[in-house]
Amino acid sequence: MRKWFLALALIVLPLAFAGAALAVPPTTEVTTIVDSVTVDSDICADFGFDVTFVENGTFKTTTFYDSEGNVVKSILSNFDVRYTSTATANGKTLSTNYPLVFITYSDADIRVGLRNAYTVPGEGVVLLDAGRLILDPATGEVTFEAGQHEIVEGSVDAFCGYFQS
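^ thats the sequence. predicted structure below, dont judge the formating
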């Protein structure tokens, strides 16, 4: 009986770890963004002006695969140089860092952490996007929200008000 158990263990244990050994190893890519400019005509449309966003920094994307080489998930995070975003309108500028982590599966797009916290010196935060969002990758609709996501919630009055005054 003892020999039979030992023989079974010697056969089953290697098979249990074979799946991991056959999996395609993850890949990592580093991307550097320099002065990526976006003019947003929607965020402060109710106030009658556009906001120009400029992004800079580096991020890495690590992609994981199954044993057949199909993408299982991707994780995008900051890398080496802090990722920043600067918002400018009507001669005023605000900046924030952007340490958000994106995790993408075939059925969910997850965003975790601080996306932005635009702060007016001496006044405080005027636009905050922090916490956890889960979006449907096909529609972009939010399926779960935890934290404060003022852009998603449409609470941009303090942000736009700063640039308007």
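Residues 4-9 have pLDDT under 50 and may be disordered.
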